[in-house]
Design a protein that fits this description.
With 87 residues, this protein is α+β, with helices and mostly antiparallel strands. The protein has helices at 8-13, 36-41, 61-66, 68-71; strands at residues 3-7, 26-30, 32-35, 43-44, 47-51, 75-78.
Length: 87
């Protein structure tokens, strides 16, 4: 799993409640980093048979940085699924 640590300003852009942090605090978001192109297309560009929201752990670092269309599309952090949750 890729981990993304971001500053509070990015959290505000993601509409995460800032009440627990102050400006300048460093926070860490744990999840799967997915480029917007793979996320919106529904499948991974380098593995088209893999559904992006069903198996985000299969998303590769190569896809994130070596495929120009993916690297230039922006990024999202997908949280882990809750235990027992199928969606």
């Amino acid at each position: 799993m890729l981990r993304a640590c971001v500053l509070l300003s990015v959290l505000l852009a993601l509409s995460i409640e800032p009440a627990a942090a102050a400006v300048g605090d460093e926070v860490c978001i744990v999840g799967y980093v997915m480029d917007t192109l793979c996320l919106n297309s529904g499948s991974l560009m380098d593995m088209p048979a893999v559904r992006s929201l069903e198996e985000p752990e299969k998303h590769t670092f190569r896809c994130l940085v070596d495929v120009p269309a993916c690297a230039n599309s922006g990024f999202e952090v997908l949280p882990d699924k809750a235990p027992g949750r199928s969606e």
